[in-house]
Write the structure tokens for this entry.
Amino acid sequence: MAASIIDGKLVANLIKERVKEDIQNWMSKGNRAPKLQVVLVGDNPASYSYVKSKTTDCIEVGIDSETLQLPDTISDRELREIIEGFNKDDSIDGILVQLPIPDHIPPQAIIESIDHRKDVDGFHPMNVGRMQVGQPCFRPCTPAGIMELFNHYSIPTKGKHVVVVGASQIVGTPTAMLLSREKDGGKSTVTLCHRYTKDLTKHTINADILVVAVGSPGLITGQMVKEDVVIIDVGINRVADHENERGYKIVGDVDYKSVSEKASWITPVPGGVGPMTRAMLMKNTLLAAKKSLYP
Ligand code: NAP
């Protein structure tokens, strides 16, 4: 039987609708609109398109947003000085530096230069650490969005064996952390696989829930999963497609056709995790404006 679709677009729209109502309530009490400051360094077309979508979401929910576009020749120090200015600016609630940034700038130094109270991406060590110990914090948008999908579709995670493939600091590792947590988490038993994992199939074949965040189109095939697995495909990959007027199409890390024949639930790409990431950014920006997490 074909898998049921986990419709991230639909769930994201519901979340954005709630954020929009909250913002209207917040402003009706005399508060200004929340403001997101985006920083885009260089001219990576994928980053440009992500920022454009995030800006569209801001308009939709009533968040003011501004994008500062900087040349890829900017130095590490200059970029940190600009961020320092945004940290001090009381009219800015959330700061987002679109990753990746050029190779000569160490991303961790930039992430750490953002005031953690404005770190709506949830990448600052203060937020990462507070998440680890179960304290209020900005949760990283993609992992938080994945947790919302399980909630919305009442997909049980408690006691399930979750395999996360890909161990980045922004997706795989925090997803594994949230899913394994007892308090406000998935209560799952988690295996975290990465580049050095030997015999990936040995792990994926045992997954009740498989989260894939690698950036490798078609990495997971039908032979690598068991019947009724729940699939969360985080990957966003551009592959050549001459039938498409853009010359490319977007695919995930999962071979959709073979895997969806065995899975019970699956996120499509596009339209699965991507819209959830953006919706959670809207939610985090509102939390930042209300100073809900760091009063
Ligand atoms: P990343 O920083 O490149 O991390 C990828 C991870 O996968 C790393 O831990 C990497 O290990 C590991 N890996 C590489 N090859 C592997 C293999 N063959 N088997 C197992 N693990 C392997 O990427 P990311 O930022 O996590 O993003 C992953 C994918 O998700 C990308 O396609 C990205 O575009 C997409 N993404 C989507 C969303 C969304 O909202 N849907 C959000 C963020 C990212 P090493 O570190 O050793 O290389």
